[in-house]
Amino acid sequence: MSLYLIGDLQGCDAALQRLLEKISFSPSRDTLYLLGDLVNRGPASDAVLRRLMGHGAAARCLLGNHDLHLLATAYGARKPSRKDTLQCVLEAPDRHAMLEWLRHQNLALLERWGGQNLLMVHAGVLPSWSDYTTVQLAREVEAALRSDNVSAFFQTMYGNAPPTWNDALQGPERLRVIVNALTRMRFCTAQGSMEFASSGGASSAPAGYLPWFEVPGRLTANTTVAFGHWSTLGWLNRPDLLSLDTGCVWGGCLSALRITPRAAGWDSELIQVQCEQAQKPGD
Predict the structure, then answer these.
(1) Which tens digits make up the pLDDT trace of 133-142?
(2) Taking the domain 3-274, which CATH number applies?
(3) Is 0.90 surpassed by the pTM of this model?
(4) What are the sequence ranges of the domains in the chain?
(5) Of 40, 101, 107, 34, which is closest to residue 69 (Cα–Cα)?
(6) Which pLDDT score, from 0 to 100, does residue 87 have?
(7) 3-state secondary structure 10-28
(8) Interior/surface letters 51-63, b for 16+ CB within 10 angstroms, e for the rest
């Protein structure tokens, strides 16, 4: 049995197929953990969703900002953007099945292997959240996504305010902060105020901001956090951090990290395939 963490797919099904062939993936034996942004910008979002759906419980998927964008567009809360490549899903005969499957995926997962916690999110974790708190807050959004009133959730999901978490937040503002942290955040202040305009590398933080994982005293410092979302950051391997968005859709690589649990912690091996460029940065 092997466990694999896989970075942002963004509709690049051909690269995913090559990667699964390279690792000799077997759904009866192995488990994939997809770190969000399954769809959009690449050429075959529908094929990606059908492939992952076909793997059943062997593919455990997180939702990223592009996945939520697809759902919001399908529910009429968002208009397609110029860069979107989502029509293959929106116009598919099995559209309903794909959208229903997607809105039942997670925003955070927490696993314990070899006595060590691994927290998986798409983008980031606010410094005041522990690993357990992160998963509990993600469950609040997941409940909204799975509810009969999901259309109302999408109508209030977008926006940058409030930029800072407060335990007293309620309603749409509470859910919006959770979504923004887990699916959009790259930089925040030491007090956890998020910034969304910057998408460069870690050294490009605006004045007064830090990469979320560099905030002193963050409560997940003793948990390994695996995430995607940040292609300009690329592959990063630290005891407390695994960054796995290596820019597949931009012509980079699609990355999988094989995890082998041990008595204490785990061993890991990075496996990559080269990707065809589906879009150019800045287009």
Answers:
(1) 999 999 999 9
(2) 3.60.21.10
(3) yes
(4) 3-274
(5) 40
(6) 97
(7) CCCHHHHHHHHHHCCCCCC
(8) bbbebeeebbbbb
